[in-house]
Each structure stands twice: as C-alpha cells, then as structure tokens.
Design brief:
mainly alpha, 11 helices, rod-shaped, disordered N terminus
Length: about 290
C-alpha cells in the first residue's frame, strides 16, 4: 500500500466531491450577492402548521369538556323523577313489548275475547226461596231404602184394601207378611197419602155389599182389635155416611141362614138380633122374617 495516498479529509484530493452549498453563494462565499434569491426556510413553515393543529386540538378539547360538564350536571340533578323516568323508560318499553308478544295467539289457536260479566239480577227479580221441609218429613236423599219400600207397600194396601193406620202397621211388621222394621213401618204409616175416614167408609161399604152386615155389626168390625182397627171417630163417620138399606141387609142375611144352614124362621130371628150375631134391630129382623118367602 502507498503510504503517500491522500486521506479522505484532505481537501487537496481530486477524488472528493465538492462540499454542499446551503443557500450561500457559490463555493461558500459569504459576500456573495443576496439578490440571487434565497429559498423559504422550512423551519418557518413547520411552525405555522403546528400552531394550526394546536388550535384545532384546543377547540376539540373545549367541546369535550363542555359536553362532559353538561352530562355531569344532568346526571347530578336533584329531581329524582327525571332519573327514574330515564331509567324506567327502557323497562316500560320492554314490558309493552312483552305484553304485545303475549297477546299474540299461539299457532292453531284463536284469540278469544274476554267475555263480559253477566249482569247481576236485582233482588226484586230473584225467585222466593223455597220453604224448608218439615222436620218430620226428611229429604228424600236422607230416607233409607227400607223406609221407602215400606211406604210403597203401605200405599198399595191403603189404595186396594182401604186399611186403617193400625192395620197397615201390623201388616207391614207381621212375621207372616211384610216383616219390615218398626221404624220403617212407622215412617210409612206417618207419610202414606190417604184419608183414614174415607178408608173406613170404603171398608164399611165392602162389608155391607158382600156380607150384608148390620149397622152395629159394621161399626164393631171397623173398630175391633181383631178386625180393621179404625179409630172410633173414623168408624162413626163411615156408618153415618154410608148409603144402605138396613132392612134389605137383614133380609139377605136371613135368606143366607135359611139356604145354607136350614134354620127355622125363629132361629133366624134370634141370630139376626143377637149381640153375638148380626146385631140388627128388632124391627129389621121382623122385616126379614116377614119377607123371607117373598
């Protein structure tokens, strides 16, 4: 290597490029003509743009501060209703939305309108309350089946055989007849639909037509404990009301004794008037014997 080679800093080196000229006259002459015109300094342009940007930033910052203060002032208002209204508005909207959704009918279903409530009837239009049943006539649902059966049997006996109240009771409780309990039989005779006087009259008419009995004989049969067992007033009603010719009954009885028992007229007379027999009056027996052959 040649030690005499010029260094890079040597100005005398022919290979070095010329030094830069920063706006001065050629070759860095400070005394050069200033009129040659010097270009704008970049530093001044940079300062102006920086001022404009800083001003815009201040304006934006000012607007942000004003908006923030307004929001703070509004949220810090002493009126609680305003805050509640602001907070409640979304919930109310949500509730309305839910109600609208709930109101929509499901698929395949029809929306049914609420029925109008029935008009209340005024007390004046209401029907009067029914009277409570009598204590001795319990409701039908409370009557035992045995009692109902006994009542039905008693009604049949009364309608067909015209029996007395005591006669019905004995028939219903007899071990040789219906065999109802005493309670069921008593319920039956207390509730059977009948007129005991008319039953006594019907029985008296039957004895008169079939057996041609006397007035006293019918009364005794109606009241006897071995007979119909009507009350005395019921039997008296019957013989007072019955329409019959007692003389003809005596005559029919006399003919029956003669034809079936071959009795003499005097024996027939005694049988007709005996207190242990037919109990006709003497006049009625005399009429029968006088007309026996007629």
């Amino acid at each position: 290597m040649n030690s005499n080679a010029p260094s890079p800093q040597d100005s005398g080196s022919p290979n070095l490029p010329p030094a830069p000229n920063f706006g001065g006259p050629p070759h860095g002459d400070p005394q050069g003509d200033a009129s040659a015109g010097s270009p704008m300094v970049p530093a001044r342009n940079g300062k102006k743009k920086g001022l404009i940007a800083a001003g815009c930033g201040c304006v934006v910052l000012f607007l942000i501060l004003v908006g923030g203060c307004s929001v703070f002032a509004f949220s810090g208002s002493d009126d609680p209703k305003a805050a509640e209204t602001t907070a409640a508005e979304p919930a109310e909207l949500d509730g309305e939305a839910e109600e609208v959704v709930d109101a929509e009918p499901a698929e395949g279903e029809e929306l049914v309108e609420d029925e109008a409530p029935a008009e209340e009837e005024s007390p004046a239009d209401e029907a009067p309350a029914e009277e409570a049943p009598a204590e001795d006539a319990p409701a039908e649902s409370e009557v035992p089946a045995e009692h109902t059966s006994a009542l039905n049997s008693a009604q049949s006996y009364s309608d067909l055989m015209h029996m007395s109240k005591q006669g019905l009771f004995d028939q219903l409780t007899s071990e040789y007849a219906d065999q109802f309990s005493d309670e069921a039989a008593q319920y039956a005779v207390d509730n059977v639909d009948t007129d005991w006087n008319e039953n006594a009259l019907a029985s008296a008419e039957s004895y008169s037509e079939t057996m041609h009995m006397s007035k006293a004989g019918i009364y005794g049969q109606l009241t006897s404990e071995h007979g119909e067992q009507f009350l005395s007033e019921e039997a008296q009603y019957a013989i007072d009301t019955i329409e019959v010719d007692w003389n003809e009954n005596a005559l029919q009885s006399a003919r029956s004794y003669r034809d079936t028992m071959d009795m003499s007229p005097e024996a027939i007379r005694d049988q007709l008037t005996s207190e242990y027999g037919d109990q006709f009056t003497q006049e009625q027996a005399d009429y029968a014997i006088e007309n026996l052959d007629g």
